[in-house]
């Protein structure tokens, strides 16, 4: 509870500040308010200058802890000078007897002698038993000055007795007082609190405190996502962050009764190397946190995308081939977070050993602390210690390095948890993993067995990764440990993503994911090469961060690793093919027209066999599911199932143009038969409204709904109508629009959806034979409850009707309701336009790739309309901040766009829009299109319909 051991006179000239205060006191001796204002100005100037100097020094030396200590010291001096001035000049308490004096102490993080630039100041004002009449008014005066200076002050005014009583009942208060540090005032009073707190609270209560702190840590981790590998981590509260280091020190200070973390080396809790790791981790995290606070001007604790680049630059990171500066910085961050996890494990192991000697009551708090070990069948090197695998002797790894793999294998097959002391020894034995071990047939057999375990392979692989074994045993995996990708699509580091993908595969195989993935769950038992699938899932992103395409490079890595794992040449080539093609199925399903026969034919030619198709589907599902929460949804599942079934039909010889015509005729008959309550003539006329693509694409159930929808609109004389339906399983909401056809119809619908904040995932565009459009827009679901989602969808439908009818003008609606997402500004995506006439037999396919923003789809479709192009179908795909939108188009007479000059003009116009040079496009957006525009030919509508 001592003062700062180091002073920083370069930050603040304390004598000069005191002299200024003396001058203020003499100049305004009888004028309280002018004195207060002058005092406030002097302190404000000292604080601003001191913090500016701290920031300047920080920019020069980069010391995170040093910066936090400087700011804490500055705060101490300001409080001390203020305390002395208030007591001596305002309340005339300079000669008050020692027994009546108050003490001012720092608590919480400030109590550790470190303070981030934007952090709160937590103060404890200690009162004597017999407080003076001026005590509380003086404290109030000090607090008002601190608040007026802009500080966020957390404070408590208590007697020592209050502190002891409240500490017994409240663990938060107990922790705060544990870190109490005397600043100024009565040092005797502060010392008495320290002595009584140690004797009356800390002594013999270690188990309770440790239980509370570890439970508090676990809950904090749960709230923060329960992983240290989130790509926007919370530096203070997240897993592997500063709070975890503080928790270790709180426990150490409480249990081992130490005042400095360096004392843990003397006690043998940490080795000197481990303590240096503790210091390096703490200094790095403090440096990041201080940069965040300085950069944002507030107590920002989340390392968000929009500040990561600037902090990477401030810390001196540079681009390397395959990895940008920000990705290198974030990889370093996650490696430090992993080090914090290692230190936690090491510390808990030492704590358990100490408990075994001194504090039996701790058992059941940190784990199952029973030291009755029993033999494990089939091994003499490891024992079962209360349900956890432990080492039979300290030299088991040195005697046989294969035991580094066998340790995890035995834990898996015996369903054992891991003793922290054993994991500590694993980490200290990583130097034994050399080329000879990597090439060991037995070691690779054990690894493959772990990976393909029918229990929980992800759990064992995660422990191997945390201990450092996985990255050492597979150096290519080691390269992607803690590697992040600077985009909004991937939520985790690459290694975390791969382990989660393995977990999804395991859960599918164990039947846990049947409801979410019915087709994959049905196919999985029939896949004979399950080892191939598991290896492909683990390795599919192993070449991320390299200059070349990671799929191609990953296939090369697989060809080198698979023989080592014991796979045959045929199996090796299958793994390599799966990795090379692991993005193909997802991209085809989400960005191509699955009703276009050429799409299926081209995809089938790449896949070539049903076995490959099944395995690629499973890999694709695992990959998407492991990207992050909310990325997978039922709509993506539906697209993948459609692509699978269509391709399966072709690969099995059942797909032909003739069968397609027959299927369309059969669908028409089915629709007619389903409308049993309609008069025959009305039924026949209605069926003739629809063209082949509609009959083949839309499910019979939806066709019947559409029939009733159109019939009701016609009966009511409505030229314009909307209908909504929610799909909870698919996590999308369907909005169907019936309207007179118009070349800008999709533009208006997309703009209205953007204005309503609805994210479009797909658009089905159909035209009836009487010149009307029947367009179905699919948007991401927002609310979990169907009633709420239906109301939201209805409001979107109403907005679409208002814009189409001209009651509202689209540009104003978009401008008033949308704004660019702030986080997107942190990213750059070079606009790309690809125009192809080989992807479809009937259409020119335009694919655009650029940074997402509200209203983009509406602007793009407006340009396509300006260029006299007819959109047959649109496929909207969002990958975080990036969009890849695909449009199947023809010219106004239904032909492909083959002219190179025209293609170049289309690309140039679209790139201008994607670069947000589209104000004139927004201005040209139509106000309403309740009737077909003059000059819109029936040939245009028919061409669209006949697609």
How would you concisely characterize the structure shown here?
Residues 1-375 are annotated as: Uridylyltransferase. One of its GO terms (biological process) is regulation of nitrogen utilization. This protein is an alpha+beta fold.
Layout of secondary structure:
Layout: H1 14-27, H2 32-61, H3 64-90, E1 103-106, H4 108-111, E2 121-127, H5 135-148, E3 153-159, H6 160-169, H7 171-178, E4 181-185, H8 187-202, H9 206-223, H10 242-255, H11 263-266, H12 272-296, H13 305-314, H14 325-358, E5 373-376, E6 379-385, E7 388-391, H15 396-399, H16 403-413, E8 417-418, H17 420-428, H18 435-438, H19 441-451, H20 457-467, H21 469-473, H22 475-480, H23 494-509, H24 518-523, H25 530-539, H26 550-565, H27 569-580, H28 584-591, H29 597-607, H30 610-625, H31 634-651, H32 657-674, H33 680-687, H34 692-697, H35 700-715, E9 721-727, E10 732-740, H36 745-755, E11 760-767, E12 772-780, H37 786-805, H38 810-817, E13 832-836, E14 844-851, H39 856-866, E15 869-879, E16 882-891, H40 900-914, H41 919-923, H42 938-946
Parallel strand pairs: 2-3, 7-8
Antiparallel strand pairs: 1-2, 1-4, 5-6, 6-7, 9-10, 10-12, 11-12, 11-15, 13-14, 14-16, 15-16
Helix pairs in contact: 1-2, 1-3, 2-3, 3-5, 3-12, 6-7, 6-8, 9-10, 12-13, 12-14, 13-14, 14-17, 16-19, 16-20, 20-23, 23-25, 23-30, 25-27, 26-27, 28-31, 29-31, 30-31, 36-37, 36-38, 36-39, 39-40
